[in-house]
């Protein structure tokens, strides 16, 4: 079985382009292909990513787990666990660590509801 060569017919729409135009077309198409993946990365997160963020904020995995679970239950994953902890810290005037420990202990979740309801974040 011999492959029928159709290269010339497939490249007709590109034949008149200069090297610079081909270069620009390549990068435009590459951006078009990659953009949906970038959008997913910016708009979506996972529990593993959020735990990782909390670990980098200084929480242990034991402390991070209930925070992530609480954020998921509240429907605030789009705000990010670190963002939830940070907003609570700002509201209460405490350190980020103290705010996270309160959440990990099961406290202040009602304040989270009220805090994010003010900015239209609770579903």
What descriptors fit this protein?
123 residues, mainly alpha, 7 helices, 68% helix, elongated
Report what the structure shows.
It is a single chain. The protein is mainly alpha-helical. Helix content is 68%, strand content 0%. The protein contains seven helices and no strands. It has helices spanning 7-10, 19-43, 47-56, 61-74, 81-92, 96-104, 109-118. Helix 4 crosses helix 6 and helix 5 crosses helix 6 (96-104). The mean pLDDT is 90.
Would you tell me the overall average pLDDT?
90
* Number of DSSP strand runs: 0
Listing every helix as H and every strand as E from the N terminus to the C terminus, the arrangement reads HHHHHHH
Largest sheet: none
Architecture blueprint of SSEs:
Layout: H1 7-10, H2 19-43, H3 47-56, H4 61-74, H5 81-92, H6 96-104, H7 109-118
Helix pairs in contact: 3-4, 4-6, 5-6
């Amino acid at each position: 079985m011999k492959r029928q060569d159709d290269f010339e017919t497939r490249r007709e729409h590109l034949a008149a382009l200069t090297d610079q135009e081909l270069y620009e077309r390549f990068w435009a198409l590459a951006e078009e292909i990659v953009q949906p993946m970038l959008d997913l990365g910016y708009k979506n997160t996972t529990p593993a990513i959020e735990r990782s963020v909390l670990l980098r904020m200084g929480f242990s995995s034991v402390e991070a787990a209930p925070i992530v679970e609480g954020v998921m239950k509240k429907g605030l994953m789009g705000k990010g666990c670190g963002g939830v902890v940070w907003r609570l810290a700002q509201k209460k005037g405490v350190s980020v660590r103290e705010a996270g420990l309160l959440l990990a202990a099961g406290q202040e979740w009602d304040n989270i509801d009220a805090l994010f309801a003010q900015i239209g974040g609770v579903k």
